[in-house]
């Protein structure tokens, strides 16, 4: 069989939200929906929401002319490991975009993005590999987003913000607008808690919470 095979990696909550977006995309392209599956390292059952669930090896063994995978895994570190697995096995990353997401001018984006319903990307934005933007998130003008960054639902990333690799921005967080040449910066691997209002830079690896956001005391 020479038809391509498409998969959403992860059959848990987020994967089950992403797969219908992929299904819509394939339907628009005239690709049979039996060519869309889940991948899960520990399949919960043979089928989830009408689609087969395969192990990674079973996915590789399935006859196909080409293979495409979307990584519906929240952890940026795990996404990076799985991205390396795709590359090593000759599997292509699959971008999934909701039909109603909005993208304006001069937006450059790396491979493997998942852009959910009502996401907005405005203008003059640079985004790295394997970016996740969950429902109702937006990225405003002149922002730079690194690799393996995750935006949970409703993130408000205002203009002139830099978000470095592996950062996680929690549901409803607000990142204050920076200035040209002096962007607000979220460091590598930083975590911004749910509903946090970030008014100043966040150092690499630090978790911040609250309004205004402050480092979480352990």
Count of DSSP-assigned helices: 3
Which structural class best describes the helix and strand composition? alpha/beta
State the strand order across the main sheet: 7-10-13-16-19-22-24-25
How much is the radius of gyration in Å? 18 Å
How would you describe the oligomerization state of the chains in this entry? Answer: single chain
Number of domains: 2
Family: Belongs to the transferase hexapeptide repeat family.
Protein name: Acetyltransferase
Comma- or semicolon-separated keywords:
218 residues, alpha/beta, Rossmann fold, UDP N-Acetylglucosamine Acyltransferase, domain 1, 2 domains, 8-stranded mixed beta sheet, 3 helices, 25 strands, 16% helix
3D structure, described in words:
This protein has about 220 residues and is of the alpha/beta class. The chain folds into 2 domains: about 5-95, Rossmann fold (3-Layer(aba) Sandwich); about 95-210, UDP N-Acetylglucosamine Acyltransferase, domain 1. Helices cover about 15% and strands about 30% of the residues. The protein has 3 helices and 25 strands. It has helices at about 15-30, 55-60, 75-90; strands at about 5-10, 35-40, 45-50, 50-55, 65-70, 90-95, 95, 100-105, 105-110, 115, 120, 125, 130-135, 140, 145, 150, 155, 160-165, 170, 175, 185, 190, 195-200, 205-210, 215. The chain has an 8-stranded mixed sheet with strand order 7-10-13-16-19-22-24-25, with helices on one face. A 6-stranded mixed sheet has the order 3-4-2-1-5-6, sandwiched between helices. β1, α1 (about 15-30) and β2 form a beta-alpha-beta unit. The longest helix has 16 residues, at about 15-30. The radius of gyration is 18 Å and the shape is elongated. The model has no long low-confidence stretch (mean pLDDT about 95). InterPro entries: AcTrfase_PglD-like, Trans_hexapeptide_repeat, Trimer_LpxA-like_sf. This is Acetyltransferase. It comes from Castellaniella hirudinis. Belongs to the transferase hexapeptide repeat family.
């Amino acid at each position: 069989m020479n038809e391509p095979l498409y998969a959403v990696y992860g059959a848990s909550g987020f994967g089950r939200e992403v797969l219908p977006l992929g299904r819509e995309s394939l339907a628009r392209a005239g690709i049979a929906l039996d060519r869309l599956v889940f991948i899960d390292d520990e399949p919960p059952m043979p089928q989830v929401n009408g689609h087969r669930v395969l192990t990674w090896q079973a996915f590789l063994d399935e006859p196909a002319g080409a293979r495409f995978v979307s990584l519906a895994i929240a952890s940026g570190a795990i996404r990076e490991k799985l991205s390396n697995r795709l590359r090593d096995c000759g599997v292509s990353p699959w971008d999934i975009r909701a039909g109603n997401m909005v993208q304006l001018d001069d937006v450059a984006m790396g491979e493997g993005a998942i852009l959910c319903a009502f996401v907005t990307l405005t203008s003059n934005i640079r985004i790295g590999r394997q970016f996740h933007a969950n429902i109702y998130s937006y990225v405003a003008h002149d922002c730079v987003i690194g690799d393996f960054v995750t935006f949970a639902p409703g993130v408000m990333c205002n203009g002139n913000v830099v978000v470095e690799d592996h950062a996680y921005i929690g549901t409803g967080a607000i990142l204050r607008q920076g200035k040209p040449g002096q962007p607000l910066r979220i460091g590598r691997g930083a975590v911004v808690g749910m509903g946090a209002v970030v008014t100043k830079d966040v150092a690499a690896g630090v978790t911040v919470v609250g309004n205004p956001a402050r480092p979480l005391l352990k």
